[in-house]
UniProtKB/TrEMBL annotation:
Superkingdom of source: Bacteria
Gene source species: Nitrincola iocasae
Origin organism lineage: Bacteria, Pseudomonadati, Pseudomonadota, Gammaproteobacteria, Oceanospirillales
Protein name (record): XRE family transcriptional regulator
Length: 124
């Protein structure tokens, strides 16, 4: 099993030291010190969640099943506050191309079983 220090390093590397240092307003060396000592101030550990770090994983070693990336969180928040028409359009766009559930069966019968679309003319 990996140590809390290893898990912290894994999550920080996933996000990027520069992104975290810029976002939190701390020096990159500060983050490297956290990694060297496996000692992150609690307020910064909580703030890492906002960058998409799985804090539950860092602390316990178990991946959070409800962990969302920052773009997924943003999408969810925008969807929650969107008007109903926008929600319907988003769902329509996201489900486009998927097989319809309970769709109608199509049966073609007759002599020759030919199927034609628009402007079809049979040669005589």
């Amino acid at each position: 099993m990996s140590s809390a220090r290893d898990r912290l390093e894994e999550e920080i590397n996933k996000i990027g030291v520069t992104a975290i240092s810029t976002g939190l307003g701390v020096a990159r060396n500060t983050i490297y010190n956290w990694l060297a000592k496996a000692n992150v101030p609690l307020n910064y550990l909580v703030a890492l969640k906002g960058f998409g770090a799985d804090v539950h994983y860092i602390v316990s070693g178990e991946r959070s099943t409800t962990s969302l990336s920052s773009d997924e969180q943003e999408l969810l928040e925008l969807f929650k506050t969107a008007p109903l028409a926008v929600k319907a359009a988003v769902l329509g766009a996201l489900t486009a191309g998927q097989d319809a559930k309970g769709g109608a069966d199509i049966s073609v019968t007759g002599v020759g079983n030919r199927v034609a679309g628009r402007d079809y003319r049979e040669k005589e």
